[in-house]
Amino acid sequence: MTVAMLIIAFLKHFECLVLFPSLQSGWFQLSEGSDTVSVIFKSKGGEIVPGGHVIAKHGCWSLLKGGVVANFSSPFEILFKSKDSTVEIWADNVSLQPFTKRQWRSLQDASIQRERKRKVRFQVTSINGTAMKGAKVIARSANLSFPFGCGMNHYILTNRDYQSWFLSRFKFTTFTNEMKWYSTEIKQGQENYTIPDAMLNFTKENCISVRGHNIFWDNPKQQPEWVKSLSTKDLEAAAKRRIESVVTRYKGELIAWDVMNENLHFHFYEDNFGENASAMAYAKAYELDPKPKMFLNEYNTIEQSGDEAASPFNYMKKLQEILSFPGVAGMSAAIGLQAHFAAGQPNLAYMRSGLDLLATTGLPIWLTEVSVAPSPNQAEYLEEVLREAYSHPGVEGIIMFSGPAQAGFNDTTLADENFKNTPAGDVVDKLIREWGTGPHTCTADDRGFVDISLHHGDYDVTVTNPLTHSSRTLSLSVKKDFLQETIPVK
Ligand SMILES: *[C@@H]1O[C@H](CO)[C@@H](O)[C@H](O)[C@H]1NC(C)=O
Ligand SMILES: *[C@@H]1O[C@H](CO)[C@@H](O)[C@H](O)[C@H]1NC(C)=O
Ligand SMILES: *[C@@H]1O[C@H](CO)[C@@H](O)[C@H](O)[C@H]1NC(C)=O
Ligand SMILES: *[C@@H]1O[C@H](CO)[C@@H](O)[C@H](O)[C@H]1NC(C)=O
Ligand SMILES: *[C@@H]1O[C@H](CO)[C@@H](O)[C@H](O)[C@H]1NC(C)=O
Ligand SMILES: *[C@@H]1O[C@H](CO)[C@@H](O)[C@H](O)[C@H]1NC(C)=O
Ligand SMILES: *[C@@H]1O[C@H](CO)[C@@H](O)[C@H](O)[C@H]1NC(C)=O
Ligand SMILES: *[C@@H]1O[C@H](CO)[C@@H](O)[C@H](O)[C@H]1NC(C)=O
């Protein structure tokens, strides 16, 4: 591959002395044609970190957003490249904005305050209207609005410790493998839903919402063995039976479907049925079960800046392709980002710029399978990724693919063989508390006022008279558009 490069002179010797995230943006076009332009950060030592991609064209400017979390202690170069060395890359308004880790965190906190919380003021008085100084107000969350959940596997059916571990933490889940075609129809024509049925019984009994995962997987290796050797005609019949079987069976029971898993990286069904294979699967799933959100579900879009195939830009292209297909009109489409992070410092700047771009679609974004590979800093990196997602206004849900060692979760293990928290498990429990489970306790001031900042959700609020110790409890629903300034409590 020959590379056309344009070095932006004024950024060439950008000094950077600490580990820091930087957001990068710029407008690009090509002297002719259309091609992917990538930004690359290159250290003096030759280390190369890709930082973002855009499809640039001749005749109109395209915005490239990206970034890097660098730990280069020497000047580095910022390069822009396209595959076609015969065209010139034109750039305008290129900027690089560095942040310290502390600045980054305080921006996240401010965004969480804005997007996920409301300040609530109570005024506590006696029946005769005098302020009740010293009244104790406790807000306990009954039901938080933001879905922060965890994958689950078949061990949940038999392992009581796993059950209580899960139930004390999560209300949202995805079955990691049990609904997949290779699990439900191991032998052609012999469907067996015993395990996912039983898991769904368990989640129903415990009021846990389930994402359906997945109807098809576009990776040729991830098919049931017998499917791999079918003729196109037989595959067509088998695929039709598959989608009708699984979607009809769980119709109305799930909050989402991953319809065609990983169709940016792979194209098993496109190879067999033509370019509209994914779109046709979405249209069929929507026809059979119209309510759930219908997700694309892809890896490396926000977690791996070097994977151009699944870049946020290409993700949006695929999405538009599917959404322009006639049969999907009216479907509630959604963006699924697996978020399997490798070991090492996650590139939060790339992650944020990708979420920014995807959020311009206005569609809900979920992180669907969050994991961070084992390393000495695993817990710290997991926390960075989860905070970045939770603080982004476009993100509407997070599911981790993680769990206790006894259930075989050996990548992002949250509890060891004795159900003692790992450091990553401590991070998750800390965030569950911080993101709203409370309880939040406050005392009324001279004027009977109590100010609490609460995450969106439903709360039971108990107010106790400091003298008589009598108390009363009220229900409170805190929403984004929650406007009442002061809640009187007599
Ligand atoms: C800095 O980057 C180098 C090369 O990628 C890596 O080996 C090193 O662990 C990084 N240091 C930190 C503190 O992340
Ligand atoms: C670059 O910024 C200038 C000044 O804000 C603006 O006039 C111009 O349109 C921008 N260029 C592009 C390609 O957006
Ligand atoms: C109002 O009621 C409180 C407690 O019942 C009492 O301590 C206070 O004196 C009353 N104030 C007036 C103005 O009646
Ligand atoms: C919790 O809240 C969600 C969304 O606000 C609602 O759909 C659900 O029914 C609530 N669950 C309970 C147990 O109140
Ligand atoms: C279906 O799966 C269950 C659980 O793995 C197994 O016990 C049962 O024997 C299977 N049924 C058939 C007919 O194979
Ligand atoms: C699920 O629950 C239903 C109703 O309680 C029961 O009839 C069924 O046998 C259960 N299925 C499994 C697989 O546990
Ligand atoms: C795929 O669908 C589009 C409409 O979204 C249509 O224009 C195109 O002809 C279809 N391609 C094939 C091969 O059927
Ligand atoms: C983790 O579990 C998977 C699946 O059970 C297995 O293939 C893999 O070897 C395990 N990895 C480690 C590091 O134990």
Automatic annotation (TrEMBL):
<keyword id="KW-0119">Carbohydrate metabolism</keyword>
<dbReference type="InterPro" id="IPR017853">
    <property type="entry name" value="GH"/>
</dbReference>
<feature type="domain" description="GH10">
    <location>
        <begin position="138"/>
        <end position="431"/>
    </location>
</feature>
<keyword id="KW-0732">Signal</keyword>
<dbReference type="Pfam" id="PF00331">
    <property type="entry name" value="Glyco_hydro_10"/>
</dbReference>
<dbReference type="InterPro" id="IPR044846">
    <property type="entry name" value="GH10"/>
</dbReference>
<keyword id="KW-0378">Hydrolase</keyword>
<keyword id="KW-0624">Polysaccharide degradation</keyword>
<dbReference type="InterPro" id="IPR001000">
    <property type="entry name" value="GH10_dom"/>
</dbReference>
<dbReference type="GO" id="GO:0000272">
    <property type="term" value="P:polysaccharide catabolic process"/>
</dbReference>
<feature type="signal peptide">
    <location>
        <begin position="1"/>
        <end position="16"/>
    </location>
</feature>
<comment type="similarity">
    <text>Belongs to the glycosyl hydrolase 10 (cellulase F) family.</text>
</comment>
<protein>
    <recommendedName>
        <fullName>GH10 domain-containing protein</fullName>
    </recommendedName>
</protein>
<dbReference type="GO" id="GO:0031176">
    <property type="term" value="F:endo-1,4-beta-xylanase activity"/>
</dbReference>
